[in-house]
Amino acid sequence: MRSELSLAISPGSLNLVGERWPGCSDSTTHSPTPFTVIAHSVFYGVPEHEAQDKQVVDEMNATLRDYFQLDLLSLEEAYGRWSKMDSNFKMKAGYIQGIRMLRQDPWENLICFICSSNNNISRITQMVHKLCLHFGSKIATLDGTDYYSFPTLDALAADGIESKLRQLGFGYRAKYISQTAQKIKKEHPDEQEAWLAGLRQLSYEDTKQALITLPGVGPKVADCICLMSMDHAEAIPVDTHVWQIASRDYGFGKKQNKTLTTLLYNEIGGHFRTLFGQHSGWAHSVLFSAELKSFEHRLSQKDEKGNSVVKEEDSSSNASSRKRQRIKK
Length: 329
What we know:
By secondary structure, the chain is mainly alpha-helical. 47% of the residues lie in helices and 7% in strands. It is built from 16 helices and six strands. It has helices spanning 54-67, 75-85, 87-93, 106-115, 121-135, 153-156, 161-167, 173-187, 193-198, 204-212, 219-229, 240-249, 262-276, 280-289, 296-299, 316-323; strands at 15-17, 35-38, 43-46, 99-101, 138-142, 145-148. The protein has a two-stranded parallel sheet. A hairpin with a 2-residue loop joins strand 5 (138-142) and strand 6 (145-148). Helix 4 (106-115) packs antiparallel against helix 11 and helix 7 (161-167) runs antiparallel to helix 8 (173-187). The longest helix has 15 residues, at 121-135. It is found in: Nucleus. Keywords: DNA damage, DNA repair, Glycosidase, Hydrolase, Lyase, Multifunctional enzyme, Nucleus. Belongs to the type-1 OGG1 family.
């Protein structure tokens, strides 16, 4: 028996934000087990005998709907709303379809973003894989490949973890991972990972401030965690890409700001929250994705005359129009 979960999107338009399960088939048509969903390196599956159990199937369906946040909002409606609010978004949205934020596990998400500091996607993926391989538990073998769970807080709070992580190539991040695990275990011994999950019940600002108290977590990392695992869709992580977008397209003038100060960080985040309103973090992620090399081919498509449909630099009139959209504080 094979069960499928409809993501209610067109083929090829699903682009997920997440770090786990590198190496899985990038397909929703392959079904190595009777109940398996594979989509951009995420898979869930159950044995054949459990696939006949309606309760198990219903639980799997609920888990996937929650993970993909299918009931949170309609991307089609959201893209339409954001396009009406912002001409720059409208220009990019037609080529960057289906950007969907995953509702990731807070503990896993926290450690993954500590690994992301001054790093690239390839190395982050390798680090996450090493964490699972060396400190997680084997959970499945699929097409000859073993898969491991993400390590528990207890596992990463154990003595000697920092040294082992350094040996595995984590560098200074090893200290932050070890110290963060030990801090949460010491201050919340009865809750541990549940304490992190409980932050979802707090306001955006309170959640962010609680995260910043952890070693290796600054404002940007805290905002990433808030957006991708804490149910705060208004969080706007501001990195060099987003700073460039704000300077180039929304009148923040990077030349006048040589460093991304706390004040400027908050102003940029506040601008996008005011501009896009509800779920502004999702809209910001579309603009962010448009800056990535992996999407360059979409933004450089040619029309019949060989002209670029979307250019990196807009005409002065369009740029001026967007600058006027900037909301004065």
